[in-house]
Amino acid sequence: MAAAEGLNFVPPFDHPDVIAGQATCGLEILEDVPDVETILVPTGGGGLLAGIAAAVSALKPSVRLIGVEPEGAAKLSAALAHGKPVALERTESLADGLLTQAIGNLTWQVIRPVVREAVRVTEVEIGLAVRHLYRQAQVVVEPSGAVTTAALLAGRVRGEGSVVAVATGGNVDPALFDRLVHASA
To answer: Among 139, 164, 169, 175, which has the highest number of CB atoms less than 10 A from its own CB?
Structure first.
């Protein structure tokens, strides 16, 4: 459509403007939680993680940044293991906003020097996190944004001091949300 209408296409994550825009989230975290020691970030193509990494590493490089991804879409884990973005053959998860097949090339350039850890969470853990956020905090968060809470609830991340779990997006299919929040414990 962009080509047909003579418009500029801005990729959803692998673009300098997107990364710069996402960096504001890192600035807000540092402003609201100046003693933060660990930040967990949902990771798809890496735009949000790259933006937060750029801002936080420039202002408080001691902060531990962790990308969190579904087990069925572990492209950051693959990139960290191989030292470069790796295209996964397929991705699958109810966290559909994180289903890119690879970390972006531009986002990787920002992430690589700063982020050393990726944590994977299961589908069950993601569902439990969506339910927990709704029942305990009255917050509607889509599965993609609940992966960070899933990592904490599952004990996949142990942080000392202040930990921030970025929980993004409320764009969740109502039927899926209803199923997740009303599932039996």
So the answer is: 164
Question: pTM, whole model, 2 decimals?
Answer: 0.94
pLDDT, one tens digit per residue, over 80-106 is: 999 999 999 999 999 999 999 999 999
Q: Dihedral of CA 110/48/44/65: which sign?
A: positive
Q: How many domains does the chain have?
A: 1
Look at residues 141, 131, 127, 135 and name the one whose alpha carbon lies nearest to residue 172: 141
131: domain CATH number is 3.40.50.1100
Residue type, 25: C
- pLDDT tens readout for residues 20-31: 999 999 999 999
Closest CA to 104 of 149, 51, 47: 47
The token duo for 14 is 């692998």
Inter-residue contact 61 to 55 (CB < 8 Å): no
Strand ranges, E, within 31-83: 36-42, 64-70
